[in-house]
Each structure stands twice: as C-alpha cells, then as structure tokens.
TrEMBL record:
The keyword Signal applies. SUPFAM superfamilies: TPR-like. Residues 1-19 form the signal peptide. The lineage of its organism: Bacteria, Pseudomonadati, Myxococcota, Myxococcia, Myxococcales. This is Tetratricopeptide repeat protein. It comes from Pyxidicoccus parkwayensis. Keywords: Signal.
C-alpha cells in the first residue's frame, strides 16, 4: 500500500486521540455557526493536509462561500475556479444572493468552459506517456506507472504537470498502466486507470526471435489427419454398365418391332364363277 494511503488514517487517529476534530469538521462547524473567518482558516488547513477528492470538493466550496460572505469577492472567485476545475458541474444556490452568485459567475466566465484533461498514450519507442492539461494549477504532481501483464508490481515515475511524464517499456511487449494527478496534500484529483484496473496497451511490433520461439513452443498443436479415400474396384460398375447397355439394346429391339399387319376378314360367302 502506498505511504500516502496510510497518512490519512493515522492522521485522523492522532487527531481523535488528542481530542481535536479534523480540520474539515471544524471548518463546517464554524461555517454553520456563521464564524466565516474561522471557517476559512480551517478549510485552508484541511486543503493542506491529507484527504480524498470528495473532501477536497467540500473544502474548496466551503472556502469559496466563506470568503464571499466575508466580502472578499476576488478570493472567493479564485476558490470557485479551483472548485470548477475539479467539478465543472458544481453549482451554487440562487437563493444565496448576488454576494455569492457574482464571484461564482465570474469564475465560470474566467474558465470559459475549459476542463482538465489527463491523457495516457504509448509512444512508438514503447514508452507510456502521461500529460495533464488543467485550466488552473490545482494538481502539482503527476504519476504514471507501468508493468507487464501478470507482473506483481508497477514501475512508476513522478513529475510535475503538465508533463510529459514517461516510463520506459519495450515496444514489443504489451503493458498495463495507470496515471494519477495529486495536489500538495496527496489527494488524487484526476486519474486514468488504476492499480486494480489498469489501462492496457498492445505491443507495437514483432517480438524478438527468442520470445517468439517460446510463445510458439507454448502454443498447443493442432494435428490434422488427412484420410485418403481408397479406390474402389471398377468392375462391378463396368459389368453392371454392360448389362444395362445390353438390356437397353434388347428392350430397344422389342420396343422397335413394327406393329402387326391387320387384314380384313375373308368373305367366305363369295362363290367362284
């Protein structure tokens, strides 16, 4: 398990043991109590520590609202822009009034519909390459990991957005890969594939002769047996044919005989002179 995945549970356990609420919980409590200054501070603290993507969405939205209620439209717009980069479908309630709607609409207009795009491709030399386009610098770390299908672990390379960040791989081998973009607190904001469900890229060329020979040797053989048809003797057919021919001749002679001559009956009453 990655070290970052262990930070959040340990951090929450430590906070609970010390009798302190996690920053996000304290921020929401302060916000509900209309203590927007304390809420903004706690939201900022939550964004700097470990957390999940869902928690980041709550923190950025709360920070934007808190700053807007405090009369800081520019700071509220900046927070709204980050929120819209993470979730382009994020909305605010119209009932909150122009004090909130104004910086939110300004953030939407500033982004002009641009969205983050995390791309994972394979180069002709076999490398797996990841790039990240983001309208605002939300993610600060880009990771791409690669392994051969069936291998136990991944080989990972970490770089800074927008990249490219690449991992070498033999072009004649198929590979599995995933990429993720994280913020300063280690929260995964964007990802393509995952460790459990990686992307798959096929081989780009023919394998080396040794590999091809091993694959061919492991392939099951299909033996096709050709059964030759034995030649049957022709004499029954010849004799039978001759017999049929002779029968045909006899039948033809019988059928071709002329019809018997029919004479009128003799007139026995006629007398001689």
């Amino acid at each position: 398990m990655p070290v970052r995945a262990l930070i959040l549970p340990l951090w929450l356990c430590a906070a609970s043991a010390w009798g302190a609420e996690p920053p996000l919980t304290r921020a929401e409590q302060a916000f509900d109590a209309l203590e927007f200054d304390a809420a903004a501070t706690a939201y900022q603290e939550a964004l700097e520590g470990p957390g999940s993507r869902a928690e980041r969405l709550k923190a950025w939205e709360g920070l934007a609202l808190a700053r807007a209620f405090m009369g800081q439209p520019q700071a509220a717009q900046e927070a709204f822009e980050v929120l819209l980069v993470l979730d382009p479908e994020a909305r605010v309630q119209a009932s909150l009034g122009p004090k909130i709607r104004a910086p939110y609409e300004a953030a939407r207009k500033a982004l002009e519909g641009r969205r983050p795009v995390l791309t994972v491709t394979r180069a002709q030399d076999g490398r797996v390459v990841a790039t990240l386009e983001q309208p605002r610098p939300v993610a600060v770390e880009l990771l791409v990991a690669v392994r051969q299908p069936g291998a136990a672990g991944f080989t990972a390379v970490v770089g800074a957005p927008p990249g490219p960040v690449a991992v070498k791989a033999a072009p004649v081998r198929a590979v599995e890969a995933y990429a993720m973009a994280r913020d300063a607190g280690g929260a995964v904001l964007f990802e393509q594939g995952s460790m459990r469900a990686p992307l798959r890229f096929d081989a780009l060329g023919a394998p080396p002769p040794a590999v091809a020979a091993a694959v061919e040797a492991a392939r099951p053989r299909v033996v096709e047996e050709k059964v030759e048809e034995r030649h049957r003797p022709l004499w029954p057919f010849v004799v039978g044919g001759v017999g049929l021919a002779a029968a045909g001749v006899v039948l033809g002679v019988v059928l071709s005989q002329p019809a018997p001559l029919a004479l009128p009956p003799a007139d026995r009453t006629e007398r001689l002179p």
